[in-house]
Structures are given as C-alpha cells and as structure tokens.
Design goal:
Elements lengths: L2 H19 L34 H37 L1 H15 L3 H12 L3 H27 L3 H8 L4 H37 L11 H9 L7 H27 L14
Helix pairs in contact: 1-2, 1-9, 2-3, 2-5, 2-7, 3-5, 4-5, 5-7, 6-7, 7-8, 7-9, 8-9
Amino acid sequence: MSAATRVALAVLAVWAGVALALPMLPLAPDGVDLARILEPPGNGSALGFDEVGRPVADRLLVGARTSLLVALAVVAVAGALGTAAGALAAYLGGWADRVLTAAVDVFMAFPGLLLAIALAALMGPGLDNLIIALAAVGWVSYARLARAQALSLRHREHVLAAQALGAGTLRILRLHLLPLMAGPLIIEATFGLAGAVLAEAGLSFLGIGVQPPAASWGSMIREGVRYMLVAPHLVIVPGLALSAVVLATNLVGDWLRDRLDVRGARATGRRTT
C-alpha cells in the first residue's frame, strides 16, 4: 500500500468518524455571534466565522455528515436498483434485456449532472428529493456493469449445473452470480461515492440541494463566494474539505481496483452523476 493510499484511508476514516461522532459533539452550527461576522481563523476560532457570525468549523463538521449520509444513501439505492436490474435483465435475456438496454440508452443520452439538476428542480429542493434525483441518475452505471458481468458469467459451469438441478432465477442470481460480481460492483460503488459527494455539493451550490440553515459544503461555498475578497476562508475551507474527500475516495477506489485485480470496473459504462 502506497503512502498516498494510507493518507486517503486516513482522510476517509476522519470523515466517517466525524459523521458518526457528530451527535455527541458540543457544536452550534446555527449559533450567531454578530460581533464576529466574517472573522478570519484565529482569535480563539479554528476556522473563523461566516457572514452572519456562525462558526465555520461547526458548520464544516455538520456538512461532512450531510455529504456522507447523502453519498451513502445514493450509492445504496442506485447500486441496489442498478445491480438488480442489470443482472436480472442479462440472465433472463430477450425482452427484459432489450427494455433495460433501451432505458439505459435513454438515460445515457443526457449528461448525468444536468439530468440530476432537472429532476431535483422538478421535485423541489430538499434532502430527500436530492437523494432521489441522484439515485435516479446513478443507477445506470451499476446496471451496465452488472449486465456486462452477468452476461459473461451466466454460461459458467456452476450456473448451468444449478439450472440443471432446478434452482430458481433469484437463487442463481443471489448465490451463483452476485458473489462473482461483487468485486467490480464494490469498486464502482467507491467511485460512485465520490461522484455523489461532488454532485450533492454541486446541487447544494445551485440552491436545489440541502436548504438553509442546514449546513452543506456546497451551500457554504455558495454563501461564501460573495465575500471571497474579504473573507476567502468561507470558500477555501469547505472547498479543501470537498476536494480532500473526493480525491481520497478516488484513490481508495484505484487501490481497490488494483487489489482486487479488476480492470474494467471504471471503463464499463461508469457515469459520474
């Protein structure tokens, strides 16, 4: 394991640890101190205060939890739906495979982020709608990968033997196909996690994601852009946190790909939301 991978794992461990420990921390992300508006880091404050006098450090930690929860929810929903649809369509073949292929082609005809923006705008702002919009876009890459893997595995001897013994479709998928597909799907989920974090920040930056006064790295950057010249820490701090998490997640994904000896996980129709 390289030094860069160790650092990336440490960053992800801190990110997850902060998200889990947040309810136990004495934070006041919405507390206002008018006397400290736009105060830079220092003077008893680690990361300064924002445009209404809220502590940037507290809001940064709350934003870390928000990004993790959204990313995990998006990957879980999109991964489950896409994997089930792709594997089932490939195994059944015929009209099921044609329908899935057509649906994937329709979704792939639009840029993923633009489609997510359109869906989020139609459903309205909010955390739940944000997760639904990103999952509705993100399932495509899992479906393509699962379909490709299932097509290459469905004629293996152990699958044919299970069919000859009368095993049902769901049993074959669960016991004989999904375990062999797990490696590429785990790697896809790792890169999907980074994409979901970035997409959540982007939609929140545009005002159609996490809504004030809730903290999100994207909304923190949006609110800080207006004061970039006088208080650059309002943009730099959440921007660095976002960059560090996305880069660390991608580095871990690359390490897992090499570790599991999976060559095509990133190339098989992966789509960044």
